[in-house]
Amino acid sequence: MPTTDPFTFTTERSDRFHRAYAAGGLQGRLYAEAFGPERPAEVDAASGCTWQVLGEMVTGLRLRPDELLVDLGCGRGGTGLWLARALSARLVGVDVSPEGVAMAAERAAAFVAPGRARFEVGAFESTGLPDACADGVVSMDALPLSPDRTAALRELARILRPGARAVFTSTVLGPSHPGHERIRPWPDSLAEAGLTVENAVRQSGVERAWGRLHALWERDEAELRATIGDQATDDLLAEGRALRPLLDHLVTTIYTVRAGS
User: Which residues contact 249 (CB under 8 A, 6 or more apart)?
Assistant: First the structure.
């Protein structure tokens, strides 16, 4: 069984996660079965990316052609690449996983022209990008995984040009769970970093989709072990078993925030 928290993504675990997702296509098929028609097939995201999220990102970013979009926690690159093509934007993807970054770079040619996208290894708290370089930032189910939310949001504010926007997703315990009161509200953390919430929309149906995916991992455990190995399978099963008692209490929100002008 995994020796780390099922929601802690170290570089090693992130590399293992991306290798496993790319192995044999099994996980992509399970995500497609769980999320159904709400999942954009071309993005092929190992996340809760849905058409609703992509629509909110397009609307919230307000990018002009050739402006720079940064995808934080880009993984294999699907969300950022889809948006870069849709918005005629340039793209920089940043992720802690060297293997995810390499896979994203390989996928780029299927979405954008050469030279329009690049991918770099970096952390939420230290991206390595210049000040005020980004005309927009997205993060799909990734930013909340930072071990230091304050540092991550300060870094987000630093790389955004004044007045530019970021759109990200966050899943937290809702008011129906007693642990809700112990969670610092995102708007408070964002305000502390100098970011203003412009819009906050609940992502519909995603918690039920995650529940279906976790059940599929359990159903197909033997095939997963044969395809991606024991350690990666144990990671998935631990995540599903940890989340199962919480699914009815989870709330996923799509935040659009603006940097100070």
Answer: 173, 174, 176, 177, 180
